[in-house]
Amino acid sequence: MTRRPYVAGNWKMNLAASDAVRLASDVVRKTGRHRSVDIGIVPSFPFLMGIAPRLEGSPLKLGAQDLDAHEFGARTSGVNAAQIRSAGVVFTLVGHSERRAIFGDDDSACNAKVHAALNAGLEVMLCIGETEMQRDQNQTQQVIENQLTGGLKDVSDDQWEHVSLAYEPVWAIGTGRTATPDQAEQAHAWVRAWVEQRASKRVADAIRILYGGSVKPANAAELLARKGIDGALVGGASLEADSFSAIVTAAANSRS
Ligand code: PGA
Prior knowledge:
Blueprint: E1 6-10, H1 17-31, E2 38-42, H2 48-55, E3 60-64, H3 81-86, E4 91-94, H4 97-103, H5 107-119, E5 123-128, H6 132-136, H7 140-151, E6 163-167, H8 181-198, H9 201-206, E7 209-212, H10 217-224, E8 231-234, H11 241-254
Bound molecules: 2-phosphoglycolic acid (PGA).
2-phosphoglycolic acid binds next to strand 8.
């Protein structure tokens, strides 16, 4: 089964409005020819509506970095699934390690967000990954499985096609340290085996599992060449159109 590569750029809390809109346009210009790759950009909330029109007619998908699991109401600063969808968003990250570590999103909060997003017609990219201490204590597989079990609880058969996963070892995010291709391939195999057991072989064959953690043009090709690594969730290197586009090119070439 060949899965379509998927590369998403998580801009995190960076850029001012005019720079964000410009970067979006540059990314469209530099990556738009790659029709064999799903490409997503994930700007801060205030820039979503300004960027959405720039992506029209391009293959790029607009993503949100997070959402509030609740519906409309008195939740100052909350942004819900219907709101981001109405701003032109197609998918949302859930459970990024910075959300887990800084804002306290636990697996049950992630699960509520997953359902809120799916119920509103958004795609979800659930992020999972172990800390350095957990890896050193040989807990990586268990940690990943717990995050998957908690985060994806009660996802129904017909919802799986709207879910992708990002394996991001916490110790590799923003540190310049990347998981070795062997480490990443092993973790992706654990994730896919979990999906097969929880859902089905068909779902496991189809689901995209992205690697994230200091992906850059210099290491993208060797990671994306590995079995079961279907794309990349890129932080720092997505803030420059040239480096992001080089990673998209590596993803396109990985399947050719
Ligand atoms: P990084 O971030 O590429 O800067 O390590 C990845 C991420 O947080 O998704």
